[in-house]
Write a structure and sequence with these properties.
5-stranded antiparallel sheet; 23% strand; EC 4.2.3.5; 4-stranded antiparallel sheet; 17 strands; 8 helices; 339 residues; alpha+beta
C-alpha cells in the first residue's frame, strides 16, 4: 500500500536512514513542461534544516529524475526519481533499537512485520513525504498545463490550542523545542479555481479522496471540510447554501459545503482543516517496554522536529494537488463529448 492515486499515481520508496527515498509517478499526461526550479522550491519548503523551528538534520533534498522526461517535458511514461540522503546519523538511534517509543510506529511495525528499521523510524518516518512533494509539484504543473491553474494555499491555523499571530504560534513551537517536548495543531487549506463536476461518487467522492490523502500524512489525526463539525451543531436552514446565477455561472451565496456537494465539486472554493498530533519523539523520559516485553525507560536521542506544522504545509498542498489532478483526469471519462 505504498501507491497513492487512481490515474495519477505515486508509488514511493525508501527509508529515513537508507541510501535514498524516491518514487515512480504513473499517469502523468505527456507534454507537461517540467519546471525544475519550481519543483526544487517546493522541496526546499519541506526540507529538514530549512528552519530554526525544526530538526537540525540538514538535507539538500535535490531531486534527480531518472525517466519519463525528455527535452524538459513529460513523455507520458513512468517518471522515476530519487532524492539521496546525505546527513543521516544512524548512531543516534542505537540506544532505542530494542525498545518501543511511546505513540510511535515502532511497536505496530514490529507487530505487523516481525522486524523494524529503528533508524529514524525507517519507513514510518516523515522523510518519505519528500517524494509526495515532488509528485505534488508535478501535479500542479500538469493542472496548469491542462488549463486549471489552481491556487492551493495551506496555512497554520492553530498551535497547541492557540490561534494567534504567526509570531505567537512560532513562539509556542520554540517553547516546546526548548523544553524537549512537542506540540500539535491545525493546518487549514483552500483550493481556488476548481470547476464544477470533479469527483466520483459514490466510493470516490472528492472529499473522501482528500480525506484519504490528508490522513495518509504522518501525524495527521483529523480531517474536516466545509463547516465540518461546527456545522453539525446548526439547523439546515442555517447551513444550506442557496444557489444563484451570476456572471454566467452558478454560484452559492454561502459556502458551508466547502465547495463539494454529493462528493462532486460545485465550483466554489474548497476548504478543509487537518489536525496534527504533537510529534511522538520527545526528549523526556517515558515508560515503555522492549522487544522482549520487559519494562524500560525511553529517552530518545537524535535530531527531531518539535512540531510537524511548518514543514507539513507543502505536504498538505502537494497531496491536495495530486487529488485534484487525479479528479481532473477521471472527470474526463464521465461523459462523451466534453470534459
Amino acid at each position: 500500500m505504498n501507491t497513492f492515486g487512481n490515474i495519477y499515481k505515486l508509488t514511493c520508496f525508501g527509508e529515513s536512514h537508507g541510501p535514498a527515498i524516491g518514487g515512480v509517478i504513473d499517469g502523468c499526461p505527456a507534454g507537461v513542461e517540467v519546471d525544475m526550479q519550481f519543483i526544487q522550491s517546493e522541496l526546499d519548503r519541506r526540507r529538514p534544516g530549512g528552519t530554526a523551528l525544526g530538526t537540525a538534520r540538514d538535507e539538500a533534498d535535490k531531486v534527480e529524475f531518472l525517466s519519463g522526461i525528455f527535452e524538459g517535458r513529460t513523455t507520458g511514461t513512468p517518471i522515476g526519481f530519487a532524492i539521496f540522503n546525505t546527513d543521516q546519523r544512524s548512531r543516534d538511534y542505537s540506544s532505542i533499537k530494542d525498545v518501543f517509543r511511546p505513540s510511535h510506529a515502532d511497536y505496530t511495525y514490529f507487530a505487523k512485520y516481525g522486524t523494524r528499521d529503528y533508524r529514524g523510524g525507517g519507513r514510518s518516518s516523515a522523510r518519505e513525504t519528500a517524494a509526495r512533494v515532488v509528485a505534488g509539484a508535478l501535479a500542479k504543473l500538469a493542472l496548469k498545463a491542462a488549463g486549471y491553474p489552481l491556487h492551493i494555499d495551506a496555512r497554520i491555523a492553530e498551535v497547541g490550542g492557540v490561534r494567534g499571530t504567526e509570531e505567537e504560534m512560532n513562539g509556542m513551537i520554540l517553547d516546546a523545542k526548548r523544553d524537549g517536548d512537542s506540540v500539535g495543531g491545525i493546518i487549514t487549506c483552500t483550493i481556488c479555481g476548481v470547476p464544477a463536476g470533479w469527483g466520483e461518487p459514490v466510493a470516490g467522492k472528492l472529499h473522501a479522496m482528500l480525506a484519504a490523502a490528508m490522513m495518509s500524512i504522518n501525524a495527521a489525526k483529523g480531517f474536516e471540510y466545509g463547516s465540518g463539525f461546527e456545522g453539525c451543531r446548526h439547523r439546515g436552514s442555517e447551513q444550506n447554501d442557496a444557489f444563484a446565477f451570476r456572471d454566467g455561472k452558478v454560484v452559492t451565496l454561502t459556502n458551508n459545503s466547502g465547495g463539494i456537494q454529493g462528493g462532486i465539486s460545485n465550483g466554489m472554493d474548497i476548504y478543509f482543516n487537518v489536525a496534527f498530533k504533537p510529534i511522538a519523539t520527545i526528549f523526556k523520559q517515558q515508560q515503555s517496554v522492549d522487544t522482549s516485553m520487559n519494562p524500560c525507560v525511553v529517552e530518545p536521542k537524535g535530531r527531531h522536529d518539535s512540531c510537524v506544522l511548518p514543514r507539513a504545509l507543502p505536504i498538505v498542498e502537494s497531496m491536495a494537488a495530486m487529488v485534484m489532478l487525479d479528479a481532473c483526469l477521471m472527470s474526463r471519462s464521465s461523459r462523451i463529448g466534453g470534459y
